[in-house]
Amino acid sequence: MLPSGSQLGGAPANFAYFASLLGEEGIVASRVGQDDLGNEAVNRITGKGLSTAAIQRDDAHPTGTVGVTIGADGQPDFTINGVVAWEHMAWTPEWSALAARSDAVCFGTVSRHEAESTAAVTAFLDALRPSALRLFDVNLRQDRYSPALLHDSFQRAHAVKLNDEELRTVCPLLDLGDAGLESMARRLLKAYELDLVCVTRGSEGSLLVTSSETVGHPGVPADVVDTIGAGDAFTAVLATGLLRGVPLARVSEAANRLGAWVASRTGAMPDADEAVCSAVRDILRGDTV
Question: DSSP 3-state assignment of 20?
Answer without folding.
Answer: helix
